Amino acid sequence: MDLCHVSATREKGWYLALMAPNIKGPNYAWLDPSRLYCHPQGLQDCLTDLLQPFQGDPIDMVAGIDAMGFILGAAAAATLQKGFLAIRKAGHLCVQTLAQPYTDYSGREKVMEVRTDAISPGLRILLVDQWIETGGTMQAAIQLVERLGGVVAGVAAICIEDSEGGRWIQERYKCTHCIPPNLQPCFNRHQ
């Protein structure tokens, strides 16, 4: 699908066809959604699908997770007319931070940080990431928000895989993603 084509039906998830498969090997994610962000209608429809379940919900701020969650999160914040908070990998913020160790989708131990002056007790945060594979990165973001007294208003991602971590998140928080139920098994198996 080219970057000018818009599906005639525009059913939920039509824009998933814009994503590109991994051609570089096992050190990369199996699918790259960044091409979707280049397509104006695809990005808009993706945001509409992600944010629809939160219409009318009290959301004070949107937080995106380093790095690809920044794109989708900032776009969601602009759409909702809310502020945007970047939750970063350790070592990138030059202000007072709170840190949370986690294990990412590749099994590597990492640390996530958030500035301590952005979240006040009771602030309702919508957490956004591009993809939730094992759930470790999102769980670290959730812990950071809650340790600062914030409330996780919801979790949004293009895909939340049916993994142990993905299920843990979906059982505890209001979640939304763009994968139609009939395609979810394919995404879980990275096909």
UniProtKB/TrEMBL annotation:
Give the domain of life: Eukaryota
User: Looking at the keywords, is Cytoplasm present?
Assistant: yes
| Residue ranges annotated for the Phosphoribosyltransferase domain, each copy included | 58-178
Chief place where the protein resides:
cytoplasm
**What Pfam families is this protein classified in?**
Pribosyltran
Question: Per UniProt, what is one GO molecular function of this protein?
Answer: adenine phosphoribosyltransferase activity
UniProt keyword annotations, A-Z: Cytoplasm, Glycosyltransferase, Purine salvage, Transferase
What the entry lists under Gene3D superfamilies is as follows: 3.40.50.2020
- Which subcellular locations apply to this protein? Cytoplasm
Q: In which pathway does it act?
A: Purine metabolism; AMP biosynthesis via salvage pathway; AMP from adenine: step 1/1
Q: What span is annotated as the signal peptide, if there is one?
A: none
Look up the record and report any one GO term of the cellular component aspect. cytoplasm
- The EC code for this enzyme is 2.4.2.7
Enzymatic reactions: AMP + diphosphate = 5-phospho-alpha-D-ribose 1-diphosphate + adenine
Q: From the UniProt record, give one GO term of the biological process aspect.
A: purine ribonucleoside salvage
Q: What do we know about how this protein assembles, alone or with others?
A: Homodimer.
Family label: Belongs to the purine/pyrimidine phosphoribosyltransferase family.
Protein name per UniProt? adenine phosphoribosyltransferase
Q: Which organism is it from?
A: Galbula dea
